[in-house]
Write a structure and sequence with these properties.
Order of helices and strands: EEEHEHEHEHEHEHEHHEHH
CATH architecture: Alpha-Beta Barrel
CATH class: Alpha Beta
Largest sheet: 8 strands, parallel
CATH superfamily: NADP-dependent oxidoreductase domain
Radius of gyration: 18 Å
CATH topology: TIM Barrel
Shape: globular
Length: 276
C-alpha cells in the first residue's frame, strides 16, 4: 500500500513511480509554475502534465525553480490526439521535452486511444523507450479491449493506464484486468471535479477522522494501490490533499465507498471521445 507521500509503486519494467502526485490539467503556464514549485516544496515528487494542457513550459519552470534535483522528480507528459502516428509522435515528444526544458521524461502516455493511430503511436513510443529518452511508457483512457488490442501487437507492455477513477466510477473490471496484466492503474479526476464531495457517506467518514471528503477519497485511492494525481492550484489545498497518510480507512468504510459506484463519468467515455 502507498503509505507516505514519497512512497513508490514498482512499474512492470522495474521503474519506481511515486504513488501520489500533482495534476495540472488546463492550468495556465504561470499558475502551473507556481503550483509545481509549491507541490515540490511540500514533498510531492510526481508531476503530471500533457501537451494538450499547454503548460509544459510552466511545469518546467516550476521544476527548475523548486531547487529539487531533477533525478528526484517523476515527470509525466502525454501525446495528444492530433499528434498521434509514428513520425508525429516522435516530433511531439521532442516538442514536449523542449517546452519542459528536460533531457528525458520519466513517463510518456498515449492520451486517448485514437482509432487506427494508437498502434503506430505506440511503436514510436517503444523507440523512444528503447533509446532511453523516456524511462517508461503507458496509456491513458484505454478500455480493456484497447489494452488487449495494443498488447497483442506490442514489444513493450504499457506500465500504466491512467483513467477517470473515483467513487462514482470504480471501474472494477478494468482495475482487475490491469492488476492481472501488471499494468498500474492511475486515477485522473479522482475527486470527480468536485462533484462528489457532498456524498453523505464521504462526509460521515470524513467527520470521524477529522478530514475532508476529498482526503477520504484520496485515501481510498492509495489504500487500493491506485496512483492518484489530484489537481490543485492553491498551496493550502496542495498541502491538504497530501495529508492523507495519518489515518486508515477500515474494510467496511472502503466497501461503503465502493458502493457509491454509479458508472458515472465527469469526462468522456474513451469509446466515444472522438465523436463528442
Amino acid at each position: 500500500m502507498i503509505s507516505h507521500l514519497q512512497d513508490t509503486v514498482t512499474l512492470n519494467n522495474g521503474v519506481q513511480m511515486p504513488g501520489f502526485g500533482l495534476g495540472v490539467y488546463k492550468v495556465e503556464n504561470s499558475v502551473a509554475a507556481a503550483s509545481v514549485e509549491s507541490a515540490l516544496k511540500h514533498g510531492y515528487r510526481s508531476i503530471d502534465t500533457a501537451s494538450f494542457y499547454q503548460n509544459e513550459r510552466g511545469v518546467g519552470k516550476g521544476i527548475r525553480e523548486s531547487g529539487v534535483p531533477r533525478k528526484e522528480i517523476f515527470v509525466t507528459s502525454k501525446v495528444w490526439n492530433d499528434e498521434q502516428g509514428y513520425d508525429s509522435t516522435l516530433k511531439a515528444f521532442e516538442a514536449s521535452l523542449e517546452k519542459l526544458g528536460l533531457d528525458y521524461l520519466d513517463l510518456y502516455l498515449i492520451h486517448w486511444p485514437v482509432k487506427d493511430k494508437y498502434k503506430e503511436t505506440w511503436k514510436a513510443m517503444e523507440k523512444l523507450y528503447e533509446e532511453g529518452k523516456v524511462r517508461a511508457i503507458g496509456v491513458s483512457n484505454f478500455h480493456i479491449h484497447h489494452l488487449q488490442d495494443l498488447i497483442a501487437s506490442s514489444n513493450v507492455k504499457p506500465v500504466i493506464n491512467q483513467v477517470e477513477y473515483h467513487p462514482h466510477l470504480t471501474q472494477e473490471q478494468l482495475k482487475a484486468f490491469c492488476e492481472e496484466e501488471d499494468i498500474q492503474l492511475e486515477a485522473w479526476s479522482p475527486l470527480k471535479r468536485g462533484r462528489i464531495l457532498d456524498e453523505p457517506v464521504l462526509r460521515e467518514i470524513a467527520a470521524k477522522y477529522n478530514k475532508t471528503a476529498a482526503q477520504v477519497i484520496l485515501r481510498w485511492d492509495v489504500q487500493q494501490n491506485v496512483v492518484t494525481i489530484p489537481k490543485s492550484t492553491h498551496e493550502h489545498r496542495i498541502k491538504e490533499n497530501a495529508a492523507i497518510f495519518d489515518f486508515e480507512l477500515t474494510r467496511d468504510e472502503m466497501e461503503q465507498i465502493n458502493s457509491l459506484n454509479k458508472n458515472d463519468r465527469a469526462g468522456t467515455n474513451p469509446d466515444s471521445f472522438d465523436k463528442d
